[in-house]
Amino acid sequence: MNTTIHIKVRDRIGLVNEITGIIKNLGIGVVKHGAVVTMDRSGCPVSSFRAVLDIGDSAEFQLLTKRMRRIKGLISIESN
Question: What is the pTM of this model?
């Protein structure tokens, strides 16, 4: 099933690699993805990563979100 996730994280070098590494290690397929960096109110860079993923079932999705929540600087994670 295709699921869209949207992750906001304080931007840093290697962040997209970390996110895609989590997805890859779980064997989840990426249909499409993109990232945009903006500044928050205090002037800190925030990466907004959005991806459409081919997730097998709800257990796989739960594991994905559990691992994503470990990302340093995570602000939010949402899905459709």
Answer: 0.90
